[in-house]
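Final report, Chapter 2: Outcomes

The project's central promise was a pipeline that accepts a single protein chain and returns its three-dimensional structure in a standardized token representation, suitable for archiving and comparison. That pipeline is now operational. To close this chapter, we reproduce one record exactly as it appears in the project archive, with the input sequence first and the structure output second.
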Amino acid sequence: MTTQTAARTPRAARRSGADRIPAVDIARGIAVLTMFVAHVQPTVPTGALDVIAVAGGGERPRTLFAVVGGIALGLFVASAERRGLSDREIRREIAVRGVVLIALGLVLQTMASGVAVVLDTWGVLFLIALPFLRVRTPLLLAGAAAAVVAGSALAAALPIAARDELARNLVLNQLFEWAAIGQYPLLLWFGFLTLGFAISRFPLRRRRTQLLLLGAGAVLALATLATRGTGGPGERPFPTELLVHLAAIGAAVALIAALLVVTDPARGWRRVTGEVLWPVQAVGAMPLTVYTVHVVALAVWRSSGGALADTWLPFAVLTAASLVGASLWAATLGQGPLERVLAALSRAR
């Protein structure tokens, strides 16, 4: 990055929110980019490059996205309080954002992109979270733990055969899809969101907090060792199902904490990491725009025949375009276009 571009970065940051925590945007950028792996990875083995699928596969990217989203929601509430908004006004803004995300998600679902769109689920979670914005942090953590345990138990209790039976009843099947057995089960994701929301209340800029989160996340992530070689949802017993989600949570928290450490402005590392990770941070600062554009791009690509689908080239093009496009937009215009629209709609009176 040139000195001139670096100099523009703080001004862009002010336009999109001066109190943003770079590590949170970087973590969300990593989550968005690794979700691309599931959407465009080759359908046949590709040798050494399969390490990309291993690094970006499984539950880790989506869990990271959900936990970071909870942190971002908490930071949004804190920012709204500093703007002098009342509880009613804060809930109204979040509710409007939720409704808009549901509408956008449903529109994107009509496209033949091959992506299990998450935006409508995310919007529903915003609405569900409204009564819990003032719940005390210990209760939030307890609720997050209960939701993850209950969601894991429900997923384990519904094997493939039971799901086939549910499919015959459209109403019951849809309810269970939303609650526990879909791509983005609300029960589990509410646990991830609530955990992130609770973490947002910690003094994240303090080194002690960062190291405690890093240690706790690393311990939880060790559960990965007990889940290697296991099947998918509905094929795992409850203890293994729970360990899978605990491992993903641990990995997410550890990564967020590590990024908080290396981007700490009190350390000399900040200049280096800021330069290197700026494009990823730019993606994470406009996740709605990048996610929506990538769904539309995949719909166009697949409707035109999906050329080179058995190579990593589509993933490389999508990733490079996201990094370059988001960086240029953030450096010159600041807040992402869809993020601006969402903010304007939520603040309209």
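Archive annotation: Residues 238-262 form the longest helix (25 residues).
This record, like all others produced under the grant, will remain available to the consortium after the project formally closes.
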